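Checked the freezer inventory, then went back to the computational side. Two predictions to log before the end of the day. The first one is the construct we discussed on Monday; recording sequence and tokens without edits.
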Amino acid sequence: MSVLFHQFTSPDTPFDLAEFLYIVRRLYIWPIDKYKRQMLKRVQNIYRYKYFVETGTHTGNTPRALRNDFEHIYTIELDEAWFLRSQSRLKRYSNITCLHGDSQQILRSVIPRIDLPAIFWLDAHYSGEGTALGAVKAPILQEIELIGSSDVREHIVIVDDVSDFSAAEGYPPLSSILGALEAINPKYKFYFDYDERIR
């Protein structure tokens, strides 16, 4: 904590209280990764869906944590190094399929395999150093459009880190994301939980 506080009080960086509190909340008060996985488990405990589809595997912690909650998990990673690490880590679980490539392309082959409602966890946006940057900073609209091509209209779509999306920084505006989801199913209802947008 002292290192973090020093970072925000150094002479080279003007102190930003809102940013400081945001980071403290995500790291110390409600550890973000643990909270998100608990949230996904809560959603699954309500709906008991068969499939989970993740874009943005990164370390593979999410599919590993959810391996006993779903009949089958598909996880997609653009960065080759992260893909190889997570694939090696997750290969022992027969119900997890690791896929390498751009989510905009890979979802085209995954969605036809989904014959029942699924939970989609969309986390393929660029998050800085250590994450992959594809053709666009956040392929969220393209991913939602592909989900809309499914014959199933009862999918749950959860958009990770939606509070970080800023049109000024090249991300799609929130209004476009909500409109794309409503185009799939006008009966969708929307909820915010931590930094996620849940339909």
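The second is the one RB wanted added to the comparison set:
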Amino acid sequence: MKKSDEQGVALIMVLIIMFIFIIFSTSLLARWSYDANRAKIEGKLLQAFYIARSGADALGTYIETNPDKTRVDALVTDGTSGHTSSSVSLGNGSYNGSYTLQVTRPTDNPSLIKIISSSTVDNFHQSVTLVLQETTTPTLNGDGTITYTYSWSFKRWEFKSLTP
């Protein structure tokens, strides 16, 4: 074999190795980009979830510690309206979004109320529902009259993801 023939084979081998290296590098770069994007999305979903849960928890705690039937009845809506916030400041700045709180009473069980809290962070949505149980406890007084104590207690959480 001549030396000039061997030089052509070496060039072809170098080109094949470079092609394989480029394909491998491109696939690694695509994977890293996908993982970084997915982590960003999951972070936004987690922020939206915790904002929604915090809103429902705060209102639920308020209702449990202030069990005024008139105030609770004033909070109850038909499910089509509620309180919507503007942007909320977080520890690391603010986010582009809002949260909505609604309080509804199921028609099939009027001793329950549902606090529906939805949050949006950069077009990623999460919704949670806190269900509270109404309790009325009668107490017999010494003079023969009955006093009713009105209270609310935690029943359950319901979670629903509303991702785009």
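For RB: The mean pLDDT is 78. Strands lie at 83-84, 89-90, 93-94, 97-104, 112-121, 124-140, 146-161. Let me know if you want it refolded.
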